Amino acid sequence: MPKKSYGELKPPERLLLGAGPSNIDPRVLRALSFPIVGHLDPYFMEVMDDTVELLRYAFKTKNQITFPISGTGSAGMESAICNVVERGDEIVACINGFFGERIREIIDRCGGRSIEVRAPWGKIIEKEAVEEALANSNAKAVAIVHAETSTGVLQPLREIAKIAHEYDALLIVDAVTSLGGCELEVDKWGIDICYSASQKCLNCPPGLAPITVSERAMDVIRNRRTKVQSWYLDLLTIEKYWLESSRIYHHTAPILLVYALREGLRFLYEEGLESRWIRHKENIQALISGLEEMGLNIFTDRNYMCPVITAIKVPHNVKDRRIRERLQEEYNITISGGLGELKGKVWRIGLMGINSNKKNVILVLEALKNALKKEGYNLEK
Amino acid sequence: MPKKSYGELKPPERLLLGAGPSNIDPRVLRALSFPIVGHLDPYFMEVMDDTVELLRYAFKTKNQITFPISGTGSAGMESAICNVVERGDEIVACINGFFGERIREIIDRCGGRSIEVRAPWGKIIEKEAVEEALANSNAKAVAIVHAETSTGVLQPLREIAKIAHEYDALLIVDAVTSLGGCELEVDKWGIDICYSASQKCLNCPPGLAPITVSERAMDVIRNRRTKVQSWYLDLLTIEKYWLESSRIYHHTAPILLVYALREGLRFLYEEGLESRWIRHKENIQALISGLEEMGLNIFTDRNYMCPVITAIKVPHNVKDRRIRERLQEEYNITISGGLGELKGKVWRIGLMGINSNKKNVILVLEALKNALKKEGYNLEK
Q: What CATH code is assigned to A15-20+273-374?
């Protein structure tokens, strides 16, 4: 039964320094307030064209097939996988965290056979292990996460792309957390399918998943024996709406979210991708130094730290959830706990897009220090 | 290559009187500007709970499983179908318009076998035809469109629900266009799965697809032999996030769109569903009378006219597209052309949610009259 009445929305003003979503750029918020037009309006076609161009810039690609999927990052993941996989296909699934597991799950649901390459959470996937999996299978693709949000690991991709191509396999990369914050070169590195999300380093509302697909991958997709099992996520039909002049209606695009994405990308373009990568690196370095000065330990392998999110070991005897609650209730700062096997064992602090700045580094360090103190945890050992 | 620079968004102020999206309620726009919180924030849990309650009100249901899918209406359609269908399952697909065809396509992609029940576009599906299909098959479900946006037909559902249940089949209903504008009683009529979209009569941005599922249907879903082929649209896992106190993370909900949906539903709740149905009926009646006075002919079967959208025959010798362009360029009014086999043959005028009012009826009639006059079409025959 509904209540008698429902009040106004009154969300608290959080500083979102967790694993995402990040805060929304005020410019993006403004874009959301602009008048909506139809999904076939000539004005919207211009917005779409700009968005596609700006996405190509962000992904560093010339791929024709580049547009946002109308769903969150996980819809991007499912689209990437289900467009490639046909029943019985073997796919190398690289699993060193929560989102690698999700990739495996989706491959299986598409009727594919996952060839698992596992590494401990917090470590990277070694290229030798990928090579071995490719040598011992008939894999059509390798799927791997660039920035594993669950562990803070940044996965090197160049060598793995080379190996995949040597074995005539495609490389599918999850860049949900990395796009716009971490160095990423789709064309130069040889990534065939790369997908991301709007709500991390692009500071847009969640609900869109940018994707880009190489010609090599499109050849595979165009030559499938069977239709893609998902109608909604079928790249060949979405392409007709997003990229062809005929603009054949597929589904109603999330128009306001596309306004927002264009604005988030415009901001990125104005700052410049490379400057952004540097900014993210500098700020995460400052954060990590501060955390270590406080006596906290980083969970992630130090050689492969992601510049937009870091995972910190929850100290012995400290109540994970209580600290996060204090940060939220007393400082209006949201950080994330651990996912899957890291539940209760790590905190995750993200500095994504506009949130990657010195002020936030200082704020979260100070708040965390005070919360730990209040909970009686003695930092100076 | 990106351009040197990208300008500010400057969308025209359209009055959206086509097949959807409709204009966004200013209250909903305001809701979109509120601060974003995390998808696991206790405040967002309250927003989710309100949204679920208000959706139950809008669908007239007590179904536990009621929440928005994170995609547009077509994602709702795919979710409804792929959660029910397993490989080889027979499903009665009722096809009397563009969206019925889409249902068939999605059933096929889920590995189901469509038992087609066809009626001419503009006519309803007769219950006898559904009964015959059920008698001659082993169908697990009947899938049918309530308000066929492509033709303006409103499909009676009560009898078809009864027949489906007699044959132990589920009834899946597409209420993308009807929810919040047309009389719809999920529980009383015996609808098992009903999905809709945010951007029609709810005046929210496109990007969410409310869905509700009966216990009868959930029993079928819980007893599947195989996993649902889509991970993203799997109701059993989405349920754990939306409805269980554990709030197990599935994917990042489109938080701002949920704010918006809550506000759109709050507005609906304040007006009252029944008052809304009456308002939509009255305004579409006024529109139809006006169109006929102008000498235009309605395409839709007069006994089954949908109160939120109507299809008008494009008069002989009139250039469909030219008239729509004139409306858009000279009056900033968007109406829709025909889809599929009706391309070039009908115009579709929608009065959805806040757009269903007397002022808009007068405006669109006057604009259409003038546009036809300017194109040399003599209305008074």
A: 3.90.1150.10
